[in-house]
Design a protein that fits this description.
Elements: H1 14-36, H2 42-48, E1 50-51, E2 54-55, H3 58-80
Antiparallel strand pairs: 1-2
Helix pairs in contact: 1-3
């Protein structure tokens, strides 16, 4: 008995594709940050209050928070906004 499989492309909503791309960016951020901790001396620098020679200040932490907040919001906005308002 021979069964022939027929493959067809499935149409995926553009909103879901955009949200998936933002999720991929978030995973890349986490991946790089996670494996950077395995470099020699990084943990000691963090304990000393420095990252790559930059002091860890409130401004530095605020910018880091903004760097992670923007993709997080874009995941939600990509799915929640109407297509005409959705940023591409």
């Amino acid at each position: 008995m021979s069964t022939k499989k027929i493959y067809e492309d499935v149409s995926v909503n553009v909103k879901i594709l955009i949200a998936a791309l933002w999720v991929a960016i978030m995973f890349l951020f986490i991946y790089v940050d996670h494996f950077a901790l395995f470099e020699t001396g990084i943990l000691e620098d963090l304990i000393a209050g420095e990252i790559a020679g930059f002091p860890i200040t409130q401004t530095f932490l605020l910018l880091g928070m903004a760097l992670m907040t923007i993709p997080s919001l874009m995941i939600f906005l990509s799915l929640a906004l109407r297509a005409s308002l959705n940023p591409l």
